[in-house]
Amino acid sequence: MGQLVAPGQKLVEQQLADGRRVYSSSIPLPDELPDILVRLARWAKEQPDKVLLSEPREGARRSISYGEALARARALRQVLTGRYGLRKGDCVATLAPAGIDALVLKLACLSGGFVHAALPPFPFRDGVETEATSSFLENARPRLIVAPSGHPAIQGMDAVSLNDLAVDGSDMATPGVDESVSPDDWAAIFFTSGSTGAPKGVPITRGMVSSNQAAIAAMWPFVVETPPVLVDWLPWHHVFGGLDNIFKVIWNGGAMHVDAAPGPATIEATAKLMADVCPTMHIAVPLGLRLLLDRLENDDAGALALTRNLRAIFFAGAGIDADLWRRLAAFRDSHGDFQVLSGYGATEAASTITLSPAPLERPGELGHPLPGHSVALVDIDGRSELRVSGPNIAPCYLIEGRRIDLPMDEHGFYRSGDAAVLRLRSDGVAVFGFDGRLAEDFKLSSGVKVRTGPLRAGLLAQCAPLADDIVISGENRDRLVALVFPSPAGKARPNELSARIAAWNAANPSGSTAIARFDLATAPADRSKGEQSDKGQIVQSRYLRNHADLFEALQAGGGQAPVGA
């Protein structure tokens, strides 16, 4: 079995004349950065019958091969230009969920030089233009909107049904040639979550896609030597699933098997699908990873089916709590020959900014900058903001229909809004570590700053496995209060949960760390109100705004004070 990661990766430090330290990877970005459509055409020629993507369909699975995907995409491009008059640079907005039809439309846009914009399904569920949907449409300015058959948008917004875009053998007989494109051409528009305001459009150029995938392959040669086989549920209106994962598969000639979103009702089918297709890489978020471990930790046969060909489990380095990490590490040590990798990214960077240079030692590792990119740590009020420069950075935002500059510093580095630190691993490799989101920090009435990210992570570790999440409040107040989302174990042992928080307070007694009062959440965060992301994580700022009265009541003496056992 070949190398998992490129050997000898080092963090290269350079001190500039003004004293700023800039870091880069010792691995160079490859000189050759072919377009993603060129990569697809290569595999369509070399392995035309290999499955590119499969999806669930009426109790079975339906699949499309590389050769068929390219032929159908080129035929659909002809339909879009001939029937709907689309030209290079026009935007096609879609509500199609991840699957074969969505893939063919995405590839047809690449073939025609159209800009593909995947719209989030929830705001458009009623199929009419509202205050919630207008910002998406104003920023994307689509010439065409495409929706699944029967979607209300077909009537309410004059969307075109996917069924109307179906192509047959006669359409594929004369596909013509692909549109001439350049790396600066926009390939897609993705939208940020909008947790702190109206969603912003982020254009992704074709060059950003190429540099991202070429850099990943340079750092992680296993995705080239073992073309990735993914069982993936991540939504395609997010850059993680709809850009990075599907293009990682296409870039390296792998296969994606679209799965249902993780949940108690779907995890059995997920385990069976994994047993059938034997993934080489599992890309996870905490919600799905926790459910998968619940299902497989005590099932040796099921665990073997998952890990038979598995090279790596990957998650975003900032998003896993200490208890889940311990469970994952124990599962890794007990089953198979795979490793755990992580990374860090943003929509503004075509998904990826840093990746692991070696298997993880602990959660929170962000890794090294992608080849060809530079990262700077810049002091902001006693913390270090991670800033990045390189070919992955988007050209602008789309806000209120206008192109607006990204938040760049005077040196041309994108300001991520996240804090990071340099850590030295036990093997001597220096890596970046996540240190919280600067936007979540706040000050008490005393002027003392509360570092919400590290505080929340510490409390979750203290309360594991009794708490799934914690929302902390106290801006411009005298003390901190918290709402705890208990796990099933926490619901059964509330006194122990209280004692754990009391023990935390005893060890961390300052006003910026101790929790004066808390309560247990009686309902999950409401995704329809923006309180929960599509990855299953609570959007802290939105939850605090939506439940201001609850936190005011805690400040006034509601809930309970932490009491030791």
TrEMBL record:
Keywords: Ligase, Plasmid. The keyword Metal-binding does not apply. It comes from the Bacteria. Signal peptide: none annotated. SUPFAM superfamilies: Acetyl-CoA synthetase-like. Residues 41-398 form the AMP-dependent synthetase/ligase domain. Its EC number is 6.2.1.34. This is Feruloyl-CoA synthase.
